[in-house]
Amino acid sequence: MTDIPNVRLIGIDFEREGKSHGYIGIQHSTTRSCYYWVPLPITCIKNSSGPTVLLISGIHGDEYEGQIALSKLAANLQPVDITGRVLILPMANFPAAKTGARTSPIDDGDLNRLFPGEANGSVSQQIAAYMEHALMAISDFVIDLHAGGSSIMHVAAAIVVAEEDAVRFQQQMALAQAFGAPYTIVYASRSQPHFGKIALTASARQGAIAIGAELGGAGSVTSNSLSLTELGLIRVLHKIGVLAGISNAPPPMRTQVLSSDRPDTMIWAMEAGLFEPAVTVGSSVRRGDVAGRIHVVDSPGYPSTEYRFDEDGVVTVARFMTQVQRGDCLYRIAFRPGHSPGSHE
User: Fold this and answer.
1) Which pLDDT score is estimated for 182?
2) In this structure, are 239 and 110 located in the same domain?
3) What CATH number should be reported for the domain holding residue 154?
4) 301 within a domain of the structure (yes/no)
5) Fewer CB atoms inside 10 A, N or C side of the chain?
6) Above 70 in pLDDT, residue 1?
7) Are residues 128 and 270 in the same domain?
8) In this prediction, what percent of the chain has a pLDDT beyond 90?
9) 144 close to 201: Cβ distance less than 8 angstroms
10) Domain CATH number, residue 273
């Protein structure tokens, strides 16, 4: 493992057979506690030889399905159940997860924009560095669980940042199919400027086959979204070959593949006000359809502004919070196979 000087392991040994719980400690001196370390909880379950799977949630602290599902898995999964090694990191950005925020209250770090991190950087940069150069570096597979957080709803979907190598891409798609979400959204690896800084591409840099998932949002959890998360994890672990025995999970539903290979698939608020949505996640839309309206309520008689979709597609992201400022994302869409910009499906 790469040496990250301000990181220590407490109660955990990734080479030990059996099951252990512990912490990744990130040194952070404060007025309240001069020798404090930020404790990232982690579980290692190891039995014999086999692939290593890293399960991540809490990269954004206000996304909860993954945190609950991985907490339950860490408690219930036993060494006898697996062949290989499973690493479970349920609160990757621990300071953010403890406060229920997207970013860290220590340094305002968005962990999913900081990979590969810096060994001597801020707390969030050190977390990113340790995750990529220590955890991802020893992993054969990585599953990164997300949701829409406090501000948006996201359609339930497996997420694939497409590998350029055809064999690796097929492995990604096989895991996405096994996860069994209603949608699988495939992003071209260079379609977004920040993709080089996210956990999925960091995992790929270290040689792991990685997929993500988006599983709800609005800062909440439903029984349906949690069930999808838990069953998806079981099916993926079986697909990889780590989970022994016969799965009790039902077979995955057929997933609808969408592509999002351009950065201009969002509608942005251009003024502050109250947002009235016209559609929600999963809606099929056509170019020219009304997306919603923004009302400037504190200016009596001021006309509302209407927003329309520029493309045909499926709504994958919809704003949940009604109050908006200029620059807030209102919607994001993805496309069915065969779509070309400007075309009608």
Assistant:
1) 96
2) yes
3) 3.40.630.10
4) yes
5) N
6) no
7) no
8) 84
9) no
10) 2.40.50.100
Q: Domain of residue 193: give its range.
A: 7-259
CB 15 within 8 A of CB 204: no
Last residue of a domain, one of 259, 275, 306: 259
Residues 217, 88 within the same domain: yes
223 plus 324 within the same structural domain: no
Give the mean pLDDT of 211-239: 95
Q: Same structural domain for residues 285 and 250?
A: no
Dump pLDDT digits (tens) for 172-187.
999 999 999 999 999 9
Whether the CB-CB separation of 110 and 198 falls below 8 Å is answered with: no
Same domain? For 325 and 214 the reply is no
CA 335 to the chain's CA centroid: 20
Longest dimension (CA), the chain: 71
What is residue 279's three-state secondary structure? coil
Is 200 within 8 Å of 212 (Cβ atoms)?
yes
Look up residue 209 and give its amino acid.
I
- The pTM of the whole model exceeds 0.90: yes
Asked, for residue 165, whether it belongs to a domain, the answer is: yes
Check: CB of residue 317 under 8 Å from CB of residue 260.
Answer: no
pLDDT in tens, 141-152: 999 999 999 999
Please indicate, yes or no, if residue 344 is contained in any of the structural domains: no
CB atoms within 10 A of CB 56: 28
Residue with tokens 């991190």: 117
Between CA 236 and CA 254 the distance in angstroms is: 15
